[in-house]
Amino acid sequence: MDKKWDKLTVTSPLLPDLEEFHSLLKEIWDSKWITNNGEFHRRLEKELAEYLGVPYLSLFTNGTLPLITALQALRITGEVITTPYSFVATTHSLWWNGIKPVFVDVDEKTCNIDPEKVEAAITPHTTAILGVHCYGTPCDTESIKEIADKYGLKVIYDAAHAFGVKDNEGKSILNKGDLSTLSFHATKVYNTIEGGAMVMHDAATKQRIDYLKNFGFAGETTVVAPGINSKMDEIRAAYGLLNLRQVERAIKKRKEVAEKYIEAFKDIHGISCLKISTEYRHNYSYFPIFVDEDKYGLSRDALYEKLKERNIFGRRYFYPLISEFSTYSGLPSAAKENLPVANKLARTVLCLPMHPNLSEEDVDRIIEVVKGERI
Ligand SMILES: *Cc1c(COP(=O)(O)O)cnc(C)c1O
Q: Would the pTM of this model clear 0.90, i.e. be above it?
């Protein structure tokens, strides 16, 4: 391996300015208020709701607990229809609620749950649909809503990838469904180191969620529900406020990287990029390519290894499918025959480095390797 080549990772965290962070830490130290709905927590909830264009938002300590809590809050039981093409936390949130996941196949164009497959999977035990806006591409929320309304189902969106995604009228995708959840993990477009949030439509639901994330406390001596502890602390809320100021610039930078990749790969036989619809303001959270071995001449795994040898670390998101993990592989809906598109995507996908710290030279280097121009 050529030692001159810097290591390029699939992502790199957006970090606030250290001096500015230090000055906010000083404020926290002076106040001695370090968690439990402090000033920074309240400010971050307000500023995030404004930035994202959502009416109500509740901060969480990561992106998995709002999923678990959303299912609790809507009292979801029985079976939930969901996608196998996601990060494991999506399905784990069902398992933690004693709910049986029912996997349906995805749409090849969007990598999202295919509404045409959803209706056929509904049984008398079905209570909800749990979709994922994979790579930030919105689900077909209209069709999903129609099906949900017809059968009286709730809809929850795992919007961990969809921070800042809006339609052309500027309306946030996070307002779709009954509840949506976000992750602010270090690897995401916007991070609070670890963190997350739930988006809801009304003040009463926000109040209920705020109780649930704080053990169910509704006052010093009143517990109104069997809540959990998933509060975000003041230090990460302060960090989050600073990162919020630079996330717009980071998304712009991501867009430039994406455009460079798309232009470079458009004529490579056997490499296809995820189609980015002009109907949405995207966040460029990931840059997946799909490798057709017969046309490209190398398998996805061979390309993955080739990049690695050149110190470029892509990730096979999402491979294996969630339905392939032992917890879920025994479910009838996990069968390969039930999920041909998801299985194909999992076999061919490779997410290339995508983050705002990539230089033009970095991107050129990755492109040259994929093009086979750099040995
Ligand atoms: C990151 C992610 C999560 C989990 O978020 P954490 O903050 O790491 O708990 C859930 N779902 C999807 C689709 C994710 O990508």
A: yes
